[in-house]
Amino acid sequence: xxxxxxPRAVFRSLWLDEALASDRGEAPPLWGDAxxxxxxVGGGYTGLWTAxxxxxxxxxxxxxxxxxxxxxxxxxxxxGGFVLSWWAKxxxxxxxxxxxxxxxxxxxxxxxxxxxxxxxxxxxxDAHYRHDGWxxxxxxxxxxxxxxxxLADLARHGVSPFRELPDADxxxxxxxxxxxxxxxxxxxxxxxxxxxxxxxRRVALxxxxxxxxxxxxxxxxxxxxxxxRTPLGTLVADKVVVALDSWSGALPELRRxxxxxxxxxxxxxxxPEQLEKIGWTSGLAISDSRLLVNYYRTTRDxxxxxxxxxxxxxxxxxxxRDYDGVSRRAADGEAHFRRLxxxxxxxxxxxxxxGPIARTTTGLPAFGHLRDRPDILFGFGYSGNxxxxxxxxxxxxxxxxxxxxxxxxxxxLARGPTGLFPPEPLRYVAGRIVRAAVARKEAxxxxxxxxxxxxxxxxxxxxxxxxxxHR
Length: 471
Ligand SMILES: Cc1cc2nc3c(=O)[nH]c(=O)nc-3n(C[C@H](O)[C@H](O)[C@H](O)COP(=O)(O)OP(=O)(O)OC[C@H]3O[C@@H](n4cnc5c(N)ncnc54)[C@H](O)[C@@H]3O)c2cc1C
Prior knowledge:
12 helices; eight-stranded mixed β-sheet
């Protein structure tokens, strides 16, 4: 038995509640046996983009997508909706894949942001797409210049995707003077994430992709052809693409290549007049520069969705449904929101939810196939930055699944995991210690205290998340 999501989630994010209000359709589970060319396990962005790309390459390929829950029931229907490129991760890309590949991949991720908007327009998906950019800010003095080394690396390679802004402009754009400084990346966008996931699902159905929801993979039999066992039937396939992100521990070979950590979001009641008053009417994606990152944006109905990374660590790799439900850190998220937006003190928090993030040692996702098994593919580990990059991931996985040699299947991220974490229980114990040090360091910095040398040293062991760690 391999780990999996088990029974479906009963609790939904605000985004999914909204999306499902106008889209009640649910594909029936797999019943009996079926034969396809490619079986994709996981119906989030990665699985759906991969399925769609395969069909773009060759309409005759029979593709099935199975999901334990519904498509978008995982991180894809719960995230902050920041559609970011990989420019902020350029320094890490340089180290991992070298300059040429780093530039190519970062450009591909930038293109993906526009491509998602274009895809939505072409297919009539109203995912509230707004191409208003990303503000990467400092909300305490210690965070000032957190972007400097990334911008220097970019400049050395002849690119300048970020605009350096006067401090006053940053505060004005963010709608609060608590934003002390920042840089702006105009190519980023925001979406209502679940509407994007459900839109991809609709287009997948229109393209003739077979969809089975409420269908967890219980076991992957490594025969040839492969056999994906589910509760009521078996899918027989030449290729299997495991697109499970935080549930990727279903392949034991991947278990040490990532760890799972919660990201939590609180959402306010609609307050469009108050947003108007503080001048925050754009669709900007905003984040600060901590590792336990605060990320926030407005919604079409005038709410603020305020997220916080670096939450609860998973023990082991079988997360099941542990990351469903209301946020267990809602009070903490609300405290950070109140600190950054004191002018919105009367705006009530109405909802909270959480979801799992798969973090790799580099903060970059990994794609590839199992050793000696080119028929078993995987893509996971976006480390909190997967909405845009999963569109690139779909291209990589489609080329790998079809055996096409091109810039996607041969790119630097298609060579499998680039690092391993220690085995359990060491990973969990060490992770707790490092996380506590990061939290302590960042609380000290908020309070204007200098963190101790020990705390700083231990915190520096943390892998990068939505924004990279600078050492
Ligand atoms: C709270 C939160 C905020 C985030 N904010 C952002 C953001 O603002 N911007 C950004 O770029 N990224 C963000 N992310 C990350 C982003 O959401 C993910 O990188 C992205 O959604 C990953 O997509 P995926 O398809 O790979 O995985 P998922 O969407 O998690 O899909 C995996 C699917 O696999 C299914 N599954 C699990 N087990 C089984 C099984 N055994 N058999 C079959 N199916 C199974 C699940 O039900 C799920 O639908 C955030 C994530 C969270 C949780």
